[in-house]
Structures are given as structure tokens and as C-alpha cells.
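Schema walk-through. Below, the input block comes first and the output block second. Nothing else is stored per chain. Lengths vary across the set, and this one has 59 residues.
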Amino acid sequence: MRVKVNTTARGPKQAPHIGKEGTVSRQIGATAWDVAIPRAKRSVPVFVAFDATELEILQ
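--- output ---
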């Protein structure tokens, strides 16, 4: 599922990714999701955990 990180994202690892798009990798907790965000210079994406309120589902 493709998602976009909202401006409600807080924290030192989440905030730099505001406005970026990624793919949900797996569910971590009751409302937390691991998102794979592609990087421009490397082929391996970075995985960041977000709460469901910090993500917007893209069509």
C-alpha cells in the first residue's frame, strides 16, 4: 500500500520524511506501521516506523 507521511509526524527519525511517499512493509503494533521510503542515491530503501495518524493512504 502506498502512503504519504503527514505533517503530524514527530520524532527525530520521522520528521525528516514529512511529505515523502513510501510503501507499507509490515504492521509493528496496534497502530504502528513500518514504511519503506526509497532513497535517491541508494537502491536500498530506509525503513521508518510511523503511527497510523502520521500516514495518508494514496490511491
